[in-house]
Amino acid sequence: MMLMSGGLAGVASWVYCYPLDVVKSRLQAQAFPATRYRSVVDFFRRSVWEEGLPVLWRGLGTSMAWAFVVNGAIFSAYELALRFLASGNGQRIIMEEN
């Protein structure tokens, strides 16, 4: 259940921010000083005009698969660590080391 919750939360967050990540990546990837895009507005205007709106969602499937796995694992590890520490086991280990 924790893996599923974390995975779905990661996918949901990427769906909303993915178009902005595409803009950021394309602006960063252009070769300086021969820049193709001058600004974010210029990117939207030219890219969407030349390639259509799907350009903002290219590669989304791969990112969703990655986000599901990574966020599911991180959320599960975080929750398990919280449960371990809240049960007192973490405190006992820390006390025994000193």
TrEMBL record:
Compartments it resides in: Mitochondrion membrane
Name of the protein in its database record: Mitochondrial arginine transporter BAC2
Gene Ontology terms: cellular component: mitochondrial membrane
Classification via Pfam families: Mito_carr (PF00153)
Membrane-topology annotation of the record: Multi-pass membrane protein
One example GO MF annotation: transmembrane transporter activity
InterPro entries cross-referenced by the UniProt entry: MCP_dom_sf, MCP_transmembrane, Mitochondrial_Carrier
Segments traversing the membrane: 64-86
Keywords (A to Z) from UniProt: Membrane, Mitochondrion, Repeat, Transmembrane, Transmembrane helix, Transport
Swiss-Prot/TrEMBL Solcar repeat ranges: 1-84
Family: Belongs to the mitochondrial carrier (TC 2.A.29) family.
